[in-house]
């Protein structure tokens, strides 16, 4: 079967090296695949799948002005990985980024890496690990970010290219950060409607980078806790509350321009069209929360649990009246009016990583927020929450990272980080 031929039950092709070569060379077959099959599978609704209702098996376009996975309608599952760059050689790092980009193009279109998982070269390990064979693209998005460590003096010659906005996050009251779950030189956020597709993507990127980068920490997530599509049903977090009601919508171009995308004027040039990502692993003391009365839970959040309506209002989408909430309610403290207009696009996921050895669930919120500048976004909001939020009795921030997320990959010649390294 040729590389661009699809199995009748799936959009993910089975690949045979001999068949590909038989079609007149791998390059030719690959070109045809990119132009035909992949394009046909791309989700409707713009360059990064922002359409509110998307076919959960479809593909999201990889190329565009912005990276997909930010404004894109939130997928059901997450595999997030932070990498340490272990090579000291700039050329080797660039080579990995180029290979990653080509692999990401293929995987987001529902294709196997390289020559696939079942090439006829039985003597060599296959290019692709194979667990996504037969699975649909599942709206997989792969979003890369560069952490502060990459810009350190004496590493890759990038010390003059570090954006001012890529700050080292300050310590916040109550933080109990585990360094093994924090930081990282490079991150990749893989989101998909099928967890196996997301895990396959991270696994194959890690494999490509073997010997040059190593996974520092990673996080699986489920049950998206923030919707970026206002008309969809708002998901609930592990505390049982609707989460993401008042979020920046992926279709709200005005708000995205104002609060999420870095503009050419913000500097540096290589970040124009990009964004800054803050990731926080927030552990929830679920058992304590579950013993708290409904009234207290609602007082803490500032919304009712059933409908999700703000206090004093009856519908979820009603405009919050902050004064109707307790002064230290979460929503009151996090609202833009309490933070000089600060806003971010939240895109977090729930996690449950087994138990902690004391019979308690190791569960919580893997908080992901994209913004134009963390100094006007996450930092002031978290400073206020960390000091006053009554929710703090039930949560603890245990992991933290910040990344500069570059703009989108323009076409098949472009690669992740090209403008940073040029
Ligand atoms: C485990 C920790 C957290 C939980 C359980 C939680 C839960 C919630 C819930 C239930 C809402 C109301 C629904 C909504 O409008 O989305 C909300 C709103 C919000 N949260 Fe959180 N949140 C957590 C952490 C954070 C953090 C760390 C930040 C930022 C630093 C944050 C920022 C916001 C913002 C900006 C809103 C919207 C406020 C508005 O405009 O009305 N949250 N959160």
UniProtKB/TrEMBL annotation:
One annotated Gene Ontology cellular component of this protein: cytosol
Cofactor binding note from Swiss-Prot or TrEMBL: Binds 1 heme b (iron(II)-protoporphyrin IX) group non-covalently per subunit.
InterPro entries: Dimeric_a/b-barrel (IPR011008), Dyp_perox_C (IPR048328), Dyp_perox_N (IPR048327), Dyp_peroxidase (IPR006314), EfeB/EfeN (IPR006313), TAT_signal (IPR006311)
An example Gene Ontology molecular-function term: heme binding
Cofactor: heme b
Compartment annotation: Cell envelope
Domain called Dyp-type peroxidase C-terminal: residue spans: 234-409
Top-level EC class as recorded in UniProt: oxidoreductase
PANTHER family in the cross-refs: DEFERROCHELATASE, DEFERROCHELATASE/PEROXIDASE
Membership in a protein family: Belongs to the DyP-type peroxidase family.
Record's protein name: Deferrochelatase
Organism: Streptomyces coryli
Gene, per the UniProt record: efeB
């Amino acid at each position: 079967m040729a590389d661009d031929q699809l199995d009748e039950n799936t959009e993910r092709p089975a690949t045979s090296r001999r068949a590909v070569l038989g079609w007149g060379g791998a390059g030719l077959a690959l070109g045809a695949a990119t132009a035909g099959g992949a394009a046909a599978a791309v989700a409707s609704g713009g360059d990064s799948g922002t359409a509110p209702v998307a076919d959960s098996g479809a593909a999201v376009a990889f190329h565009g002005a912005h990276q997909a996975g930010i404004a894109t309608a939130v997928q059901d599952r997450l595999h997030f990985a932070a990498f340490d760059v272990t090579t000291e050689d700039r050329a080797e790092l660039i080579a990995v980024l180029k290979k990653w980009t080509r692999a990401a193009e293929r995987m987001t279109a529902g294709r196997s890496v390289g020559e696939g998982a079942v090439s006829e070269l039985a003597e060599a390990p296959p290019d692709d690990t194979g667990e996504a064979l037969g699975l649909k693209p599942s709206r997989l998005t792969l979003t890369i970010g560069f952490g502060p460590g990459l810009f350190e003096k004496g590493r890759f010659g990038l010390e003059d290219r570090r954006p001012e906005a890529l700050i080292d996050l300050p310590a916040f009251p109550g933080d109990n950060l585990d360094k093994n779950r924090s930081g990282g030189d490079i991150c990749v956020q893989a989101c998909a409607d099928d967890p196996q597709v997301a895990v396959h993507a991270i696994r194959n990127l890690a494999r490509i980078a073997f010997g040059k980068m190593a996974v520092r920490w990673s996080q699986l997530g489920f049950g998206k806790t923030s919707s970026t599509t206002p008309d969809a049903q708002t998901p609930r977090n592990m505390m049982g509350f609707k989460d993401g009601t008042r979020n920046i919508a992926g279709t709200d171009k005005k708000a995205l321009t104002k609060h999420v995308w870095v503009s050419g004027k913000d500097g540096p040039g290589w970040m124009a069209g990009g964004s800054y990502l803050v990731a926080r692993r927030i552990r929830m003391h679920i058992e304590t929360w579950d013993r708290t009365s409904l009234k207290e839970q609602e007082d803490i959040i500032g919304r009712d649990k059933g409908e999700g309506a703000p206090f004093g209002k009856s519908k979820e989408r009603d405009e919050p009246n902050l004064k109707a909430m307790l002064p230290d309610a979460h929503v009151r403290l996090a609202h833009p009016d309490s933070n000089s207009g600060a806003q971010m696009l939240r895109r977090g996921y729930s996690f449950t990583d087994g138990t902690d050895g004391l019979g308690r669930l190791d569960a919580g919120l893997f908080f992901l927020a994209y913004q134009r500048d963390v100094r006007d976004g996450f930092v002031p909001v978290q400073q206020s929450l960390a000091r006053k939020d009554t929710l703090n009795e039930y949560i603890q921030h245990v992991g933290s990272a910040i990344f500069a997320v570059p703009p989108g990959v323009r076409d098949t010649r472009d690669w992740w980080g090209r403008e940073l390294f040029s």
